[in-house]
Amino acid sequence: MRILEHPILGPLGKKKEITLVVDGNRIKAYEGEMIASALVAAGIKTFRRTSKRGEPRGIFCAIGRCTDCVMEVNGRPNVRTCVTPVEADMVVNTQEGLGRWGKGGSR
């Protein structure tokens, strides 16, 4: 579900449609929106799983203060999806636990 008419912000307006690859599946997004917004609009609610119990986590604060929405984005773990804009053909994966840095990755 995507909000097309906001009571304060007004209509969504014409935006360029792009696609993301999320866990191997292509989803629709609009240029300028946050990754988390595109995921929720596509019906995706689980962004990561906790390291101890594997419990699902998703959007919580939506302002970048917590870490519930972190995902692996273009091979980089722990990206806060609520404050990271989408890019065409971006590859986003559900994060398991704390995330793993690959070779050449840095913190």
Short characterization:
This protein has about 110 residues and is mainly β.
Protein traits:
globular, 107 residues, Ubiquitin-like (UB roll), single chain, mainly beta, 1 helix
Secondary-structure topology with pairs:
Blueprint: E1 5-6, E2 10-11, E3 17-22, E4 25-30, H1 35-41, E5 48-49, E6 56-57, E7 70-73, E8 76-80, E9 91-93, E10 95-96
Parallel strand pairs: 3-9, 5-10
Antiparallel strand pairs: 1-2, 3-4, 5-6, 7-8, 7-9
Total domain modules: 1
CATH architecture: Roll
Q: Please report the distance between the alpha carbons of the first and last residues.
A: 34 Å
Low-confidence stretches: none
What would you report as the Rg, rounded to the nearest angstrom?
14 Å
Q: What level of helicity do the residues show? A: under 10%
Q: Which strands sit side by side, in order, in the main sheet? A: 4-3-9-7-8
CATH topology: Ubiquitin-like (UB roll)
Q: Number of helical runs?
A: 1
How would a textbook summarize the main sheet? Answer: 5 strands, mixed
Tell me what you see in this structure:
The chain has one helix at residues 35-41; strands at residues 5-6, 10-11, 17-22, 25-30, 48-49, 56-57, 70-73, 76-80, 91-93, 95-96. By secondary structure, the protein is mainly beta. It has a single domain, classed as Roll (Ubiquitin-like (UB roll)), CATH 3.10.20.440. A hairpin with a 2-residue loop joins strand 7 (70-73) and strand 8 (76-80). It is globular. The relative contact order is 0.21.
